[in-house]
Amino acid sequence: MNRITSLLGIQYPIIQGGMVWCSGWRLASAVSNAGGLGLIGAGSMHPDTLREHIRKCNAATKLPFGVNIPLMYPQIEEIMNIVVEEGVKIVFTSAGNPKTWTGWLKERGITVVHVVSSSRFAVKCEEAGVDAVVAEGFEAGGHNGREETTTFCLIPAVREATTLPLIAAGGVGTGEGVLAAMVLGAEGVQIGTRFALTEESSASSVFKDYCLSLREGDTKLLLKKLAPTRLVKNAFREAVEKAEDSGASAEDLRTLLGRGRAKKGIFEGDLEEGELEIGQVSAIISRRQSVAEVMNELVAAYQRAAKKDYLF
């Protein structure tokens, strides 16, 4: 047991990323039932949909789970009130200033964890009173930090900058990766891509199968004038690259992106015109598994790696 397992009330310090169009109640409850912490991704849900998923998750597991809330969410007050009304005890916040909601949530007995991409923001999290921080490196899928710092560089920098319990994210998809994060100073890991491609993920099967065929270099961080996003190669990404190469403005890119592009790609399986977001670690994942299989592999591989003598 360490500070992360104690704080969250879980068996293994493995947290599932709260990913848009992937992280519904089935995925969250499966991860929690397997000993980790499942997160419902509120970023792609209408308020009533979130309430439904929280209730279904409560029915599917008696173990702790949480909700991931991007602070840029347009109906943020309604979402926060739903979380409190439904008795959610753990909230992961991202994409915004942690000072805005941390105090309000903690006053209501909720554990708050915030996602950052730099040691500077980690210090701000400590000042804001969060309970733990997720340090997410450049390798991660979906939205990313502008600093483009890799996880191997970010974790020790954040560890030195703050005393908060630290969770590593970005490029972690194996038991060996979990051990590497721990050696660098993390006390837990958050895994997105590996869980996004499981049977229980709510992403389209077409999207999952395509991501399972990816190789090194098939994802790229783009849309940096809006919100840096790691995209899979397809017709939409080619259009984004062409626009950025020709000096497109933020407004031009916003028009190109339009509305519902991530839903079209991840949830509906439009491999050409959809926004396909996945992490670099997808290149070493080649088969679809259940959450239970993934968790068993992560734990077994971690334990094997921890017993090896790496001295040279």
Describe the structure.
The chain is of the alpha/beta class and 312 residues long. It contains 14 helices and 11 strands. The chain has helices at 3-8, 25-33, 47-60, 76-85, 102-107, 119-128, 151-161, 175-183, 193-196, 205-211, 235-245, 250-257, 261-267, 291-306, and strands spanning 14-16, 38-41, 65-70, 90-94, 111-116, 132-136, 142-143, 166-169, 188-191, 219-222, 229-232. The strands form 2 sheets. The chain has an 8-stranded parallel β-sheet. Helix 8 (175-183) links the parallel strand 8 (166-169) and strand 9. Helix 2 (25-33) packs parallel to helix 3. The longest helix is centred in the C-terminal third of the chain and has 16 residues, at 291-306. It is globular and about 50 Å long. 50% of the residues are buried. The mean pLDDT is 96.
Question: How many distinct beta strands?
Answer: 11
Percent strand:
15-25%
Helical residues, percent: 40-55%
Low confidence ranges: none
Q: Tally the helices.
A: 14
Helix-strand category: alpha/beta
Q: Spatial order of the strands in the main sheet? A: 1-9-8-6-5-4-3-2
Radius of gyration: 18 Å
Order of helices and strands: HEHEHEHEHEHEEHEHEHHEEHHHH
Broad shape: globular
What is the arithmetic mean of pLDDT? Answer: 96
N- to C-terminal distance: 29 Å
The biggest sheet, with number of strands, parallel, antiparallel or mixed sense and barrel status, is: 8 strands, parallel
Enzyme class: oxidoreductase
EC number: 1.13.12.-
Keywords: Flavoprotein, FMN, Monooxygenase, Oxidoreductase
GO molecular function, one term: monooxygenase activity
